């Protein structure tokens, strides 16, 4: 595939190539062979060659350096498809299909595969990428031979076998990691190739393909008969096809699969994607030199390294800063118009009580706490925040707050971000009186911090009135630069364009901060493009299980978007069918979607790594701890 290209290295040579010698051997080698399988009757054994390679390399650079190179290398092993297409389903009553039921055959194949993978480990491999079986029932060769499937639908039994195999493969890899990973982290990374490719096949147009049934090169029905050769029928536009020949993908399809290797979420690659593997390994190498770093922003996650990590994610303190998207009730204690302490807010909480959250139920911090396995943190102004409750962290957010201190002044009394930071300092003094300064510093440095700001700087500042003070003072691009350059400020225009412009420049700012901070090993920022996450749900609500993304569940007037959500408002019956709860804020279900992306999203929505990766990196580190700050973009 294209993993080597993503890694920035040249392609490795075939092991049997006479060119594989000298310095070329330092790049690695390719031992794959067409037709090979896990079972001895589907192909040849290749592990012997891997051992031979190491002996040859040892004669060049020595045994110690060879062991180091192999241990630090990335191994891709792609087996399994031939066990089905070239063995079990080779003809209607193959020897294997008579010998085994499908579930027993899958177990038999995986027991043999486990031995292969264990042998790889014994030979020194410590990072092994293990793709599962693709959608073998959809291959043009299968469609061409099964005349009963006149519509070109995939063979259901073969699809079932691939799904069963992949599920059990993932479970087997988890067991192997538990047995062999030890203190060195996960060795084996499983890839659900079937799920990745099924998306192409079910909706090829969404991925830029015109055809997912026919092979580009071949003969007969679906171009799936006989091999691709000089007399085969060849398509003109290879990039429009998922399949190149009867079984194999085009280069473009391979690129999409390789991209999922690098950036895919945990539902297709587990326990982490290849970008995460590289980040974990990089940080482990830094830790060996007494350095480490990691963190977030956009929402913004910051990571300040230097303290021992908490023993579990649930034990980690959690601090929240920001606006109404994350306010859990601080404004209940203020004289302000920005309050959510009366019905129908909180209609879906267990006691149906309005808590000050701008939601029908849980807000973003609540769902993040749930993912971490801890209870929600209390508002800083709550009289209940005392004693052991303080060890969990605190929520300093205030509805109406922005990056700029003049944002939200129309709401009356709110806690501006500068004041939220003052409260954070006060919190640490209060906690120090309970557990001491050293333990307080340890708790804060090992904490997760969520900061959600920026939306009000547009909605309740720049766009507040047709000619607001800020819009007269700044052009949109200059306003964005002002927000990002000023420690008190943030961003910009026609509201979606403003958000996109802001987010792009914020990401650039975070990249610069990361470059500066990594030198000292202190802070890393991770940005989350909430606009992109929500825009997907807004543009195609049905794909996410919503019925509408335009109307608020609670409100008045057009789109239920006029005025506040009050006891006199129109309230929808099914909150889970709506993206928006009120005129500005998501429903609990939409919040859950956002948090799921924060934890498992790919690099196009959360960068440089998602929260699951941050937590995995922290668990890998044996020395310094990390305080992470999440900052959610508008």
Automatic annotation (TrEMBL):
GO biological process: lipid catabolic process
InterPro entries membership: GDSL (IPR001087), GDSL_Est/Lipase (IPR051058), SGNH_hydro_sf (IPR036514), SGNH_plant_lipase-like (IPR035669)
Entry keyword set: Hydrolase, Lipid degradation, Lipid metabolism
CDD domains tied to this protein: SGNH_plant_lipase_like (cd01837)
A molecular-function term among this protein's GO annotations: hydrolase activity, acting on ester bonds
Annotated source species: Eragrostis curvula
Family to which the UniProt record says this protein belongs: Belongs to the 'GDSL' lipolytic enzyme family.
The protein's name: GDSL esterase/lipase
UniProt cross-references to Pfam families, sorted A to Z: Lipase_GDSL (PF00657)
């Amino acid at each position: 595939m294209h993993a080597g290209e993503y890694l920035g290295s040249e392609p490795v040579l075939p092991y049997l190539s006479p060119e594989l010698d000298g310095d070329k051997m330092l790049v690695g080698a390719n031992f794959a062979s067409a037709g090979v399988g896990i079972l001895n009757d589907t192909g040849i054994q290749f592990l012997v060659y891997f051992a031979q390679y190491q002996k040859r390399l040892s004669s060049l650079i020595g045994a110690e350096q060879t062991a180091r190179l192999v241990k630090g290398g990335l191994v891709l092993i792609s087996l399994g498809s031939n066990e089905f297409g070239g063995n079990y389903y080779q003809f209607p009553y193959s020897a294997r299909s008579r010998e085994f039921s499908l579930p027993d055959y899958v177990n038999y194949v995986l027991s043999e595969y486990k031995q292969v993978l264990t042998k790889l480990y014994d030979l020194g491999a410590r990072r092994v990428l293990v793709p599962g079986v693709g959608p073998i029932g959809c291959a043009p060769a299968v469609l061409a031979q099964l005349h009963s499937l006149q519509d070109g639908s995939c063979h259901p039994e073969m699809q079932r076998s691939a799904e069963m195999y992949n599920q059990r493969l993932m479970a087997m890899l988890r067991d192997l990691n538990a047995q062999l990973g030890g203190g060195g982290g996960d060795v084996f990374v499983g890839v659900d190739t079937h799920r990745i490719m099924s998306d192409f096949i079910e909706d090829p147009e969404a991925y830029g393909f015109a055809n997912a049934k026919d092979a580009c090169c071949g003969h007969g029905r679906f171009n799936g008969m006989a091999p691709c050769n000089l007399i085969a029928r060849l398509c003109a536009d290879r990039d429009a096809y998922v399949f190149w020949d009867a079984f194999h993908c085009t280069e473009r399809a391979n690129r999409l699969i390789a991209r999922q290797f690098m950036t895919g979420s945990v539902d297709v690659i587990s326990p982490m994607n290849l970008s995460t593997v590289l980040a974990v390994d990089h940080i482990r190498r830094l830790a060996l030199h007494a350095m480490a770093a990691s963190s977030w922003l956009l929402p913004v996650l910051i990571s300040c390294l230097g303290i021992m990590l908490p023993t579990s994610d649930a034990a980690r303190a959690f601090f929240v800063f920001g606006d109404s998207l994350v306010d859990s009730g601080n404004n209940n204690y203020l004289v302000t118009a920005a309050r959510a302490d009366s019905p129908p807010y909180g209609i879906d909480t267990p006691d149906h009580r309005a808590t000050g959250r701008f939601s029908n139920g849980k807000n973003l911090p609540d769902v993040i706490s749930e993912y971490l396995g801890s209870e929600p943190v209390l508002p800083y102004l709550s009289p209940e925040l005392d004693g052991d409750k303080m060890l969990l962290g605190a929520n300093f957010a205030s509805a109406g707050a922005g990056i700029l201190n003049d944002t939200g002044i129309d709401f009356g009394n709110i806690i501006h971000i500068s004041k939220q930071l003052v409260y954070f300092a006060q919190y640490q003094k209060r906690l120090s009186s309970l557990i001491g300064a050293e333990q307080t510093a340890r708790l804060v440095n090992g904490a997760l911090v969520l900061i959600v700001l920026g939306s009000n700087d547009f909605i309740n500042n720049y766009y507040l009135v047709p000619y607001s003070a800020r819009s007269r003072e700044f052009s949109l691009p200059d306003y964005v630069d002002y927000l990002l350059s000023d420690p008190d400020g943030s961003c910009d225009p026609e509201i979606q364009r403003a958000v996109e412009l802001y987010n792009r420049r914020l990401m650039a700012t975070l990249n610069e901060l990361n470059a500066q901070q990594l030198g000292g090993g202190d802070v890393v920022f991770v940005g989350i493009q909430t606009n992109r996450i929500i825009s997907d749900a807004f543009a195609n609500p049905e794909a996410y299980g919503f019925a509408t993304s335009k109307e608020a569940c609670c409100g008045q007037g057009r789109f239920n978007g006029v005025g506040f959500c009050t006891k006199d408002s129109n309230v929808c019956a099914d909150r889970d069918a709506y993206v928006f709860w009120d005129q500005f804020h998501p429903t609990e279900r939409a919040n859950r979607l956002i948090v799921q992306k924060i934890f498992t999203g790919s690099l196009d929505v959360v960068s440089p790594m998602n929260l699951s990766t941050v937590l995995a990196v922290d668990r890998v580190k044996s020395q310094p701890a990390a305080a992470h700050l999440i900052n959610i973009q508008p």
